[in-house]
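Notes continue from the previous slide.

Worked example: a multi-chain complex. Inputs as given:
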Amino acid sequence: MARSTLLRFAAPAIVALAAIALWQFLTDLYDVPSYLVPSPAVVLGALIADRELLLRSLAVTLGIALTALLVATVLGALTALVFVQSRWIEMSLFPYAVMLQVTPIVAIAPLIIIWVRNTWSALVLCAVVVAIFPIISNTTLGLRSADPGLVNLFRLCRASRWQTLARLRIPGALPYFFGGLRIASGLALIGAVVAEFVAGTGGSGAGLAYQILLAGFQLNIPRLFAALVLITAAGVALFALTLAVSRVALGRWHESELRSAD
Amino acid sequence: MKAVPVVAIRGATKRFPNGTQALAPVDLDVHDGEFVSLLGPSGCGKTTLLNLIAGLAAPSSGSIEWWGGPFAATGGPGRKLGFVFQSPTLMPWARVAANVRLPLDLAHADRAAAERSVAHALALVGLSEFARNFPRELSGGMQMRVSIARALVNAPDLLLLDEPFGALDEFTRERLDDELLRLWAQQRLTVVFVTHSIAEAVFLSTRVAVMAARPGRVLDAVAIDEPFPRDGAFRVSTKFASYAQRLSRLVAEAGNEATAAG
C-alpha cells in the first residue's frame, strides 16, 4: 500500500520537478527572453504578482465549468433514463445526441452567445453541450448492461419496472456513469475555456481564457503562462474531485476501485 | 384421489424465433415433495424446459399448469417459486444479507419479519457470520450458497435449480449436493434440478427425467427408489452404479440414434 501510494504520487512529482529544472536551466543557459519563453521562476513571479487578477478569473472559469458539469450530469443522467425506457425513444433521439457531440463547440459557441442574452448562462450552456455526451452514452450503456440473470430474477419476483430500475439498473449503471463523469469533468473545463475565448468577456466576469487572450495581445507572456498553469491545475483538480466521488460511491464493491486501492 | 401436481406439462414445445426447435412435445408432472432432475447433454433443452416451468418463457404450443391453474395463480399465498441460476447472480453492490432479502424486499415484506427470514435462510446454508460481507469477498461455493439462501428466503413451494454447481470443483459440489438434500428433506421442498452429471442426478433425485438433443425432448423418467437420507455410502454402492449405468445407456442410445439419423 505505502509503496504503491509513493509510486503514484512521487513518480509524477519527480518528473515534474525534473522538467521544471530542465526548463529553468535551458532558459538560463540560452538567455531566452521572457516574451518568448519565460523561465519557471518568472512564471511563478507573475503568478504571485498577478494573483488577485488571476484567482478572480480562475474562480469565474471554475464556476462556469462546475456549474456546467453539474447541469450536464443531471441532464445527461435523466436523458439516459428516458432513453432506456424504450428502444423507440433511443433510436429517435440518439443521433441528435451524437450530432451535439460531433459539432465543434467553436462553431456553435458564437450562435449560443448571440441567442442567450446572459453571457454567463451562454458560457455554461456551451460547456454543457461539450460535457454532456459521455454522461448520456455511458449511463445509457450501463443501464442496459444489467446482469440478464438478475433481470430474470426480478421478473420471477414480479418486480415492477420502477423496482427493477431503482434496485438493479441504476446501481449497476453507476460504474459506467462515473466513467462518463470522469471524461465530462475535463470536457466541461475545455468547453468553458473555449466559450470564453469566443465570447471574449472582459470586466468583472473575465475568466482565465480572457486573461490568456489579453496577455497574448499585450505580449505579457509570463502572465499567459501563469494563467495556463492555473487552467491545467483546475482541470487536474476537477478530475481528482470526480475520482474521489466515484471512490466514495463504488469503493466497497466495484472492481475498478478495489484494484487501485490494493 | 390423486393430489393436483405442482407442475403439469402437457405437450409443451418451444420453438425459437430463428426457427430452432428447442423442445419437442414434453409431458412431465412434478408432484408435491418430489426431487426431479432434468438430465441430459448440453443443447437438449434442459434450461429451456426449466424456464418454461419458471414461467420465464411461454411454450410455443401445449400447456403448463401450476397447482392446476395458470401461472398468474402462482402469486397467491403458499405458491412461491425459488430459482437458483448457473452462476450465483448476486448484486455486487449489496451485502450478503441484502442479496438474500431481495425477494422479500421486492414483495414489500415487513422489514422485521424479513430480517428474521434472512437470518434463518443464512443459517440454513451455514453463512450466518457472512451477512455483512460483500459477495466478492466470498468464494465461489459460498456465493452459490448465498444464491440458495436467497431462493429459500420466502419459503418457496417450488425450487428450481439450473445446473447450480456446474462451475464448482468436485469436492465443493458434493458438499453442496449433501446440503441441498438436507434442505429438501428438512424444508419439505419440491425441487426441479437441471444437471448434466449422471452421478449428481442419481444421488439427489427421487425421479430423473432423461433428455436428449436435436430436438430437445424427454426420453424417459426413471424413478430412483432409494431411501433418504443418502450419504457417501450410497455414492459407492452397486445400486448407485446400476442406476447410473441405466441412465447413461439411455443417454448414449439417444445419442447414437441422433448420429444415425443425422
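Summary box: The first helix of chain A runs from residue 2 to 29. The mean pLDDT of chain A is 89.
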